[in-house]
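A student in our group prepared the protein record below, which I am reviewing. Here is the record exactly as it was handed to me.
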Amino acid sequence: MAVVNPYLNFNGQCEAAFNFYKSVFGGEFMMISRFKEVPPEYTLPASEAESIMHVALPIGKGSVLMGSDIPESYGKGTPGTLYNIAINTDSEQEATDLFNGLSAGGKITMPLAKAFWGAYFGMFVDKFDVQWMVSYDENNH
């Protein structure tokens, strides 16, 4: 069964925001990675090397607050674009079914495919302008 978690985007303040959230909720980051860790075929300015590519903070019983900085090449995030709903599935088939169902009539921004970090991952904006991320990571099962 799929798990749904909030995913927040930031204009360069992700690390400060998540250190603040960690100070309030407690716990430790499950993961924190920076843009300098992406493969060389993804060209980013050197000024973004230390920016957060992905961070995950467990909260309570099973919830995870996740986030990242928005690369400059994507433009500045604005209200309405600073969040996603992240769905983590139990199989590639479940990911495919949810991705295809929820994206119907919307706009696919990253097709569902194997990502360089090993997950089966895709992103879209649904027909109601809600941003979604769908992921299956066999290493977490």
About this structure: The longest helix spans residues 14-25. The radius of gyration is 15 Å. The beta strands are 3-10, 31-34, 52-59, 63-69, 83-88, 107-114, 120-125, 131-136.
